[in-house]
Structure to design on (280 residues):
């Protein structure tokens, strides 16, 4: 019992410290919020000329705007969704202008990783050809070799045996997804007057900017700084709007799902201005 109370007390202190740190605010990029994001992929795809007017109108008519919960008995909607999936197949949903490249894993279970480890002299031969340099999976793959190099880990003061191998993305962590909608968290934080910056790369189809705009609008706060351009180096970097709950929404022109990866300069300028409480 004493141990349980000690843990609860420790957690309470941690949450109190975290809340104090929120005086600067919080920021989110292309965030999954309501798990209804698919409902906005269709209008996004239409606006980006990825599907025809006829298909878009048919989807609206036959699916009644609900593309997340399509009933199998709704044959017309299912047919239109199949047409939509076919029309958008072969696209990189994280950034619709980026090529679709092979995702190279840097783990031991990757066949290519195993071959490179077994035959290092053939690393750059035609038998083990890596994807073109313009593919983002290429540096993703190489960063695993860099981060796990003994000399690099020593330079980073990582004590041998203290932590395991570094992975850029770890998908095998056991977990239960029990929070399917974070909208109420934004409601509570807004009521407390905590600042926030919500941004969207405008070429992301995974979590389209339209879906983010929709849940922000549903907070029903008045606009204090209406829709306008924001700039970097005298060039349009995106568009922004600020609400009375101290929430700022911004798009990153040309950005994808991980906007700072695609537009680092613009995102750095955006964050620097926001964190110093200056208008974008």
């Amino acid at each position: 019992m004493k141990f349980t109370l000690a843990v609860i007390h420790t957690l309470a202190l941690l949450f109190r410290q975290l809340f104090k740190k929120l005086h600067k605010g919080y920021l989110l990029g292309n965030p999954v919020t309501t798990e209804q994001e698919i409902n906005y992929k269709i209008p996004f795809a239409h606006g980006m000329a990825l599907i025809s007017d006829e298909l878009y109108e048919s989807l609206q008519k036959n699916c009644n705007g609900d593309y997340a919960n399509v009933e199998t008995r709704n044959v017309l909607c299912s047919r239109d969704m199949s047409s939509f999936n076919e029309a958008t197949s072969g696209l990189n949903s994280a950034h619709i202008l980026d090529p679709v490249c092979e995702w190279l894993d840097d783990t031991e279970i990757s066949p290519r990783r195993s071959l490179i480890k077994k035959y290092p002299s053939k690393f750059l031969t035609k038998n083990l050809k890596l994807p073109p340099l313009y593919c983002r999976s290429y540096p993703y793959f190489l960063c695993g070799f860099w981060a796990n190099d003994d000399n690099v880990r020593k330079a980073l003061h990582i004590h041998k045996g203290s932590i395991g191998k570094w992975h850029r993305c770890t998908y095998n962590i056991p977990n239960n997804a029990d929070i399917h909608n974070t909208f109420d968290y934004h409601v509570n934080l807004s009521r407390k007057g905590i600042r926030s910056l919500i941004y969207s790369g405008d070429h992301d189809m995974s979590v389209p900017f339209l879906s983010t705009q929709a849940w922000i609008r549903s907070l029903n706060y008045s606009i204090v700084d209406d829709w306008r351009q924001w700039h970097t180096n005298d060039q349009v970097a995106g568009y922004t709007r600020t609400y009375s709950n101290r929430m700022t929404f911004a798009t990153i022109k040309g950005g994808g799902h991980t906007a700072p990866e695609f537009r680092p300069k613009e995102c750095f300028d955006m964050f620097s201005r926001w964190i110093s409480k200056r208008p974008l």
Summary: The two ends are 51 Å apart (CA to CA). The domain at 26-34+182-275 is CATH 3.40.50.11320 (Rossmann fold). Confidence is low (pLDDT under 50) at residues 1-7, 107-111, 118-127.
